[in-house]
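Form 7-S
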Amino acid sequence: MESKVYNISELQFEHRLWKSEMKIIIGELNVYQKWLGCMGQKSHSVEFQKKIEKFQNKFVIQKTHFDSFNDKINSRDNFINSLEKEQSKNVSKENITDHSNLRSDINYALKLYKELTADYKIFCESAEF
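Output:
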């Protein structure tokens, strides 16, 4: 994947957007997991419990990925902040190599997350207690 050069302030803005999105997604995952717990208490069907466990596992994996992305974003922010300190000035107008691998990973994870939540909503709508 080819890297582009971006203005640092553009990358910082993108980081803020990603962090916001990660916060929302992690909150949604917590709500979905709690709802799965409630659904699990309402049905004792072995097949239904297996489906619940499958979604719980997928939600845990997704949460781990998004937590990891937050860590990577924070690391990039720390790098930019260290550049500012090193140069004793605001580097927001300077350019830096793009983080296209991170962008690609996040976009792919968001695609998978949307597919998972769509499957989850179908499962919830079809659940019978």
